[in-house]
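User:
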Amino acid sequence: MTTGLPNSLMALLLAVGMVLIVGGLKNTPEPDDGEHGPLSEPKFGVILEREYKAHSFSVPPLVIGDRMILADYEGHVMSVRLESGEIDWEFQGDDLGYEAPLVHEDNRLYAIAAEGFVDCIDLETGESHWTVDCDATVSAPPLVVGDVLLIGTQSAELICLDKLSGDERWRFHAGDQIHAVPRVVDNQILVVAACSRTMHIVNLKTGVEIRQIELPGETVAPFTVNDNLVYVTTMYGDAVCYDWKNTKQLWSYSFNPEIQPTIAGGPSIVGEVMYVGGSDSFLRAFNITTRKEIWRRRIKGSVEVPLAIGQDLVIAVTPRGRVYAVDCKTGEIRWQYESNGSIIASPVIVDNTIVFANNDDKVYRFGPLTSLQ
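Assistant: Predicted structure:
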């Protein structure tokens, strides 16, 4: 039986944006423009700004070579040219639309509609290879591993499909909603059940549980695995490190015990530094070796999706339509932009540029990022 929070309550928790005043760290203040600093037109230039009527984009652009794949709330999947934005093909899926990021492998694209319809689409033609109804709400990205496709659902099931035929191989009941993409290490699947505070370790071939790890709090965020270490962030502002092979918690750190900001986008780790964004409208850099915060930077709006890291910059987007490029080392804002439409999907860094889409039917590409350093 699913014990997760109602979707309406979870959405409220993710949307909380409270003001935090801190001291002691390198707490980079906001520029004084009367609120949050002047919006700056990019020094590096707009490469693409393209509007697609009646397309409220809901998932991150998937860039594959010289094209990008876009999906929206209306159930469209499109292949467009990265340079010009011209449409190659368009696929009409379930009209309730897509919320989970798309994945591809072997010239096949896998798109999962919010109501659980899985579409396998030919990357070159846009034609359907097969469609399977998982009979469950899905918001987590799928994962292709070997010859299978793994799908976590809000009905508390992890479903394993044959990636070529769509045939179901097994289902594992996780006891609660699955919001984060599973990870696979040594033929073992790591999957988090959001509100039961549990990470399940499951056999990839059989779908049988091997063991469990108890988490300190609920999480809806993606998590990061580095060999035997797994890094998780919670709905209460904690970062936690586990040795998952030995089922042992190594450390836990609270980013703000009083406010307990939700870290919905999960951790992004580069070397020894973890970058996170929270519902308290702060970006943070945290050293996972010393377990000390390096800097924190307040921005306008909560961060609810994963960050993008590249060219020594942290790229963050907000539901209010702001895009920020922040220096990885200092936390200084190098550039910010107002897209005039809510951004609910992660930005993407490709070929020294930023690519993102909003729910105002627009796709943007800016670059080069190196000019901001």
